[in-house]
UniProtKB/TrEMBL annotation:
Residues the record marks as site: Plays an important role in substrate specificity: H230
Binding partners and assembly: Homodimer.
Protein name: Serine hydroxymethyltransferase
Reaction(s) the record says it catalyses: (6R)-5,10-methylene-5,6,7,8-tetrahydrofolate + glycine + H2O = (6S)-5,6,7,8-tetrahydrofolate + L-serine
Phylogenetic lineage: Bacteria, Bacillati, Actinomycetota, Actinomycetes, Micromonosporales
Organism listed in the record: Phytohabitans suffuscus
Binding site residues for (6S)-5,6,7,8-tetrahydrofolate: L122, G126, H127, L128, E245
Sequence similarity: Belongs to the SHMT family.
Principal location: cytoplasm
Subcellular locations according to the entry: Cytoplasm
């Protein structure tokens, strides 16, 4: 049963309510290991579903274009103050609708069309909005990309420096969507200063780890920081831009009126709640557990013959090349989903297969830690993954169903925020 309960939705639209209940049950019954997903608290769920969704609030606190902002202004200010305190930054904008618009705001704040931007190549672990060719950021700007070493799977900063010196980008993005190792923000900052570029740290995946002290912070190195508010931060689907005071006005103008109208006030409220939760001592324990789980799972997978990019992980994320297992990432991901293990197929560095049918899978441990799983369960998770991949190669659906049942039995002992049996 979904929590908070949805009796009015059930009465008004039973078909949709049934789908919501089904999704809650699905989230409860599966090992949710998509690296960009998590569970929010019931407090965040409640805040996100309030009457705040009724209110339109173009502008910023104290400078709105609509009346009736007495409470919305306080809510947004509260979220801003909590973001500034949690991350130790001068300025925070909590209005971006999601991570991609937050990154677009960086372009609008610091670049003109045709200017050069430098980011990590998408197949190497970067994000679409770091200048990849199919994104508007790659079409409207001169994009140059860096990658990782074929031998180590790690960023070669000598190559990054040489590329930056040659191309002279105005903005350099650090971060991405499939980076299993610690991001050296100090090294990026040194290169950015040398070439006169703005350093933008995209910490969408690791924001919760940064807030919880489980990953080094970009604060003090990056001029501007973008992040989603879900993933490891365990907030609603939104985003923030953090910056030095020097860039505050440019960032705010880029978000509004540059890219969007009124903020989603119910999401802002959910962000405020999540930021308060992330400031508690228990969140530091959670962040440490996320990393401990990932390291334990990586070790167990390696012992079972999985080829992990860079040989392991420093954070919540694991990227595996399944070539040696005799199966592509897409059929493996679909088989694992049937087996109760939810992750995504993913391109790996230097992949010889197409992006929609790549060689790899990407997985993370943020949601597992939220449910209360620890290192003790990671060898069993690895065993299930290995069995499921083997079953997929053999087209053994019975084995997949067997694993799914065992996963449900395990998870029955670990409560899920947003669901009650």
């Amino acid at each position: 049963m979904h929590v908070p309960q949805i009796p009015h939705l059930t009465a008004a639209d039973p078909e949709l309510a049934s789908l919501v209940e089904g999704e809650a049950q699905r989230q409860h019954d599966k090992l949710r290991m998509i690296a960009s997903e998590n569970y929010v608290s019931e407090a965040v769920l409640e805040a996100s579903g309030t009457v705040l969704t009724n209110k339109y609030s173009e502008g910023y606190a104290g400078k709105r274009y609509y009346e009736g902002q007495q409470f919305v202004d306080q809510i947004e200010t509260l979220a801003i103050e909590r973001a500034r305190s949690l991350f130790g930054v001068d300025h925070a904008n909590v209005q971006p609708y999601s991570g991609s618009p937050a990154n677009l705001a960086v372009y609008l704040a610091f670049l003109d069309p045709g200017d050069t931007v430098m980011g990590m190549s998408l197949p190497m672990g970067g994000h679409l909005t770091h200048g990849w060719s199919v994104s508007a950021t790659g079409k409207w700007f001169n994009s140059v990309s860096y990658g990782v070493s074929r031998e180590t799977g790690l960023i070669d900063f000598d190559e990054v420096r040489d590329l930056a010196r040659r191309e002279r980008p105005k903005v350099i993005f650090a971060g991405g969507t499939a980076i299993p190792r610690t991001i050296d923000f100090a090294a990026f900052a040194e290169i950015a200063r040398e070439v006169g570029a703005v350093l933008a740290a995209d910490i969408a995946h690791i924001a919760g780890l940064v807030a919880g002290g489980a990953h080094p912070t970009p604060v003090g190195h990056a001029d501007v920081i973008t992040t989603t508010t879900h993933k490891t931060l365990r907030g609603p689907r939104g985003a923030m831009i953090l910056s030095t005071e020097e860039h505050a006005k440019a960032v705010d103008r880029a978000v509004f009126p540059g890219l969007q109208g009124g903020p989603h006030n119910h999401t802002t409220a959910g962000i405020a709640v999540a930021l308060r939760e992330a400031a508690q001592p228990a969140f530091r324990e959670y962040a440490a557990q996320v990393v401990a789980n990932a390291k334990a799972l990586a070790t167990a997978l390696i012992e079972r013959g999985f080829d992990l990019i860079s040989g392991g992980t420093d954070n919540h994320l694991i990227l595996a090349d399944l070539t040696g297992k005799g199966i592509g990432g897409k059929p493996a991901a679909k088989a694992l989903d049937r087996a109760g293990i939810e992750l995504n197929y993913n391109t790996v560095p230097f992949d010889t297969r197409k992006p929609f049918d790549p060689s790899g899978i990407r997985l993370g441990t943020a949601a597992l830690a939220t449910r209360g799983l620890t290192e003790a369960q990671m060898p069993q998770v690895a065993a299930w993954m290995d069995d499921a991949v083997t079953a997929a190669v053999k087209d053994d659906d019975g084995q997949l169903d067997r694993i799914a049942g065992e996963v449900r039995d395990l998870l029955a002992a670990y409560p899920m925020p947003g669901h009650r049996a």
